[in-house]
Specification:
mainly alpha
């Protein structure tokens, strides 16, 4: 499954695709950060999905969301439960 397949065709595409090695400056950075934060919080997009759609790295998107003070969702997957006699 590619990044394009994971995005619903009717989903609002508010995030711009940024050319590789293009640095955002000033208001462009703030606008991108706000759009990424809205995509992550409102539309429940994953960081990897946002990165794939915008051409930015996972780390760049994570820093962008951190600048917006976004509360990150917990990581997915199975969680181990405490077994008998095990302290949590």
């Amino acid at each position: 499954m590619t990044a394009e397949e994971s995005v619903a065709p009717d989903e609002d595409q508010t995030l711009p695709s940024i050319p590789p090695r293009k640095r955002l400056r000033g208001t462009a950075t703030e606008e991108f950060d706000q759009a990424a934060a809205a995509d992550y919080t409102d539309r429940k997009a994953s960081i990897r999905n946002i990165a794939a759609r915008t051409g930015r790295s996972f780390g760049a998107i994570h820093r962008s969301l951190t600048r917006q003070k976004v509360t990150f969702r917990p990581r997915g997957g199975a969680h181990r439960s405490a077994t008998k006699g095990e302290v949590q």
